[in-house]
Specification:
CATH class: Alpha Beta
Strand content: 15-25%
Number of domains: 1
Distance between the termini: 10 Å
CATH architecture: Alpha-Beta Complex
Largest sheet: 9 strands, mixed
Number of helices: 7
Amino acid sequence: MDFDYRKYENMSWNRQEVNTPLATLFTTWNPAMQRPIVYSNTMRTWASMSARINNVVFTNDSKVSIAAKRHGWKNYSISNTACFGTPVLRTMFQEAIRKERSILYGYSNADILFNDGLIPTLEAITGSEEFDKGPILVVGKRIDVNISKLHEPVVRTPREVNKLAKHGALSWGFAGDYFFTNDLFPWEFIPDLVVGRPLVDNWLIWYARKVGAKIIDASASVLAVHQLANGLKRIKTLCNKAEAWKRHLLPNLPIYQGLIECADYETRIDPQGQILIYKKMFQYELCKHSEAKFH
């Protein structure tokens, strides 16, 4: 890579800053892409998670802005797009870091509901001396639930997400729908990859590994329910692939080195319900797969 990312490796960050929100959690959505219940559930559950979370939506849609404000969310305009008007992930992170004060910063797709494991997981990470220095990236697998088959239930709290999760199955490691980082993560070197399109999640994990970020797989302690509803509009484009080509950073798919399983650390819940973080003793062979090299 032709950029100086090593300057971040030994930098310290304020992982336990007093009187500072734990995280800024942001998203974006096009209301025409999903049934309204999906976004309503997301706004309600995120708003009820914790006063330590800043909820933000990036939007240029006045109706989305009004609905989000009604649930106590902040909203910012979308300033950078690619792929037919889709927001660029890097720019949203940079603007969230610049505009919001918090310990961590996270993006999630707008159809993801988090259970009550998210907050204690982030607290365990920020409370660990293991992550004193350098950039971190928190990722996790999702649980796919077809809410239309359940008559589109109204979900209000993270505790209710636990019940909803029982109707789904854990996804595979190629699909990552949320990312949390600290402010040391080198976003400035990331190309214009957009959200909601193939490649962005695997590319980001691959990139984090290459720049020496500590990657935590939170799947064992965070239930992230992916709401599937009838009428979902799927857009299959290769915009992110084209961007990677342009930057000479195109992998040979599948991107094994960008699997969630390739994280350095993983969370676990002990018999007393405490969340622990372990460094993995070994890496899956797939994470070393030669076909995953970028060129």
